[in-house]
Structures are given as C-alpha cells and as structure tokens.
Amino acid sequence: MTQINQLTIIGTGLLGASVGLAAKQSGFAKKVAGVSRNLESAEKAASVGAIDMPFDKISDSLADADLAVIAVPLSGFDYIFSLIAPLQRPNLFITDVGSTKSSVIASAKKHLTDPTLFLGSHPMAGSEKQGPESASANLFPNKPCILTPEPDTNRNLINTVTALWQALSMNILTMTPEQHDTQTAVVSHLPHAAAALLIQTANTLGGYDVASTGFRDTTRLASSNPPMRVDIMSANRPALITALSQYRDQITNLMAILESNDRQALLDLLTLSQTSRDHWLDDSFH
After folding, report:
1. Which residues, 6 or more positions from 90, have their beta carbon under 8 angstroms from its beta carbon?
2. Rounded to whole angstroms, how far apart are CA atoms 161 and 266?
3. How far is 24 from 160, CA to CA, in rounded Å?
4. 4-175 matches 180-285 in fold
5. Residue 102 pLDDT more than 70?
C-alpha cells in the first residue's frame, strides 16, 4: 500500500476531519496535519484523533506536506488557492473534497502557479452532522469517489490521490468536471433541494403532529448546513436547474395521473421506481 509521510487537511470540519481520521487509521499517512483559520477547530480535530498537528496558518501546515486535501466551503476555494499558490513545489500534491468540480477547477487554474499539481476529487460521503467532533472513518468504505483529471494533470499526483481514496476503501470513478456536475446535480444536490421543499410544504399544509419515520428519513438532508448547501447549489446552478426542471415534469405527470384517477399508470410509475431503486441498491451496496 502507498504511504506518504504527511497529509495536510485544509479545513477541519466534519468531512475534512473524517478524511484525516480515516487516513490515519488506514496507514496511508504517517502524520496528519490540519489547518483552520479558527485554531480551536483544528485543536478539536486533534482531540478526537482526526489529526496529529493543528495549525492556523496554511504556510506552516504545508511546510512538510506531501499531499494537501482542501475541505473548505466552495466559496472559500479562491482564497485558499491564492494562499497555496506561493507555497507550491513539485512534490506538493493538492486535491479537494468539493461537491462541484467545474468551478473548483476554474479556480485552481486562475490562482495556482502550477495547476497540473491539483486534481479534483469528490468523495460521495457525508452526513447532516457538523463539526470535527462528528468525524467518522466509516463515511467512506464502498462509496463512490469521483476524480476529474485534466489532460495535463501530473500522473504521480493522480496515482497518489487514487491511493488515498483506495486506502479509505472507496470506489474510484473518473469523469470530466462537466459530467460530474451533471450527475451530482441529480443524485446529490436535487435530493437536498427536494428535502427542503418537502419541509416547506409541511410548514404550509401542516402534518408534523402525525409525522413519523418516513417523513424523518425522507427529509434528513434538510438538516444539512444551510450556508454550505447555498454554496453548492449556487456553484452548480445550471445543472441543478436542469435537474429541477425534469423533477417538475415528473411531478406534473404524477398530478395528471392522479387527476384522471388512472390507477394502472400510477401502478406502472411506482413499480418502475421501486425496481429502479432496488437495482441500484443491489449494484451499489452488495
């Protein structure tokens, strides 16, 4: 198994701390540093065993790093890349965990002195929980991790980043940034929007008094960090609008079926949905 000397996590929230914790447990990194502009967050990550060395300055955290993982909100990438740019060296590789890729790669190309040393990553793992105290190495096993290399991306960088996510037992997929953003709009960003809209519907029509596990499970994503979701939805706005348009068409179709009381069409729709989901579960989790 590939092992590096030092991994640095830039941003010690839930996902960043979880990467650090899993990288330590897997043996991928001998040492894990974590940096946050709020030193208390980095120290909290250290207290739960997610990192070994807490920092509040990127320059200090990267001095001995072999690989840096950027785990900050999407709105912070321009700033982070601008801080990393003067610190770049040929043996410092950079990746991220951002939920969109086109905007992140554009930012890397804009700010980094050598963008070929950056590789976009998106581990499809997370939780509605927040903060390093909720870090868990169990977020990653058997989940997809998407890599979006450019034609000139450093080959050793690709190998190192692939080794990181494989050490965390993730399933590696490679695609273009545009393909990534289109697909995640459907299976990640749209579900967050749908959960929020379901809550808003209950706010208007009521029903909380009789709500139980079905409503709880369906709306779980509405408990996710709102500023983070604003970042993601805004960054992937065109693809999300396309997904929402298709979702609206599906709702319109269901309404027409119900208005005409077409029981067979309703059965066909629900059966197809059941079969499609069961096939996905069988393919992905068995």
Report:
1. 114, 117
2. 46
3. 15
4. no
5. yes
Is the confidence at residue 140, as pLDDT, over 90? Answer: yes
What is the Cα–Cα distance from 218 to 194, expressed in whole angstroms?
9
CA–CA separation, 101 and 107 (whole Å):
10
Q: Residue 116 CA to chain centroid, in angstroms?
A: 22
Residue 144 near residue 168 (C-beta atoms within 8 A): no
Q: DSSP characters for 146-182?
A: EEE--TT--HHHHHHHHHHHHHTTPEEEE--HHHHHH
Token duo for residue 284: 């992905």
Give the whole-angstrom CA distance, residue 215 versus residue 123. 27
Tell me what pLDDT residue 286 has. Answer: 64
Strand, helix or coil for residue 122: strand
Whether the Cβ atoms of residue 189 and residue 183 lie closer than 8 Å to each other: no
pTM: 0.91
CATH architecture of 180-285: Orthogonal Bundle (1.10)
Taken as a whole, the chain contains a residue count of 286
- The CATH class for the domain spanning 4-175 reads alpha beta
Per the CB < 8 A criterion, the answer to whether 119 and 92 are in contact is: no
Token pair belonging to 155 = 């080959």
DSSP class of 85: G
Q: What's the pLDDT tens digit per position in 196-211?
A: 999 999 999 999 999 9
Per 3-state DSSP, the chain is made up of helix, strand and coil in percentages (nearest 5) of 60, 15, 25
- Give CA–CA dist 29/67, Å, rounded: 9
Domain boundaries, the chain: 4-175, 180-285
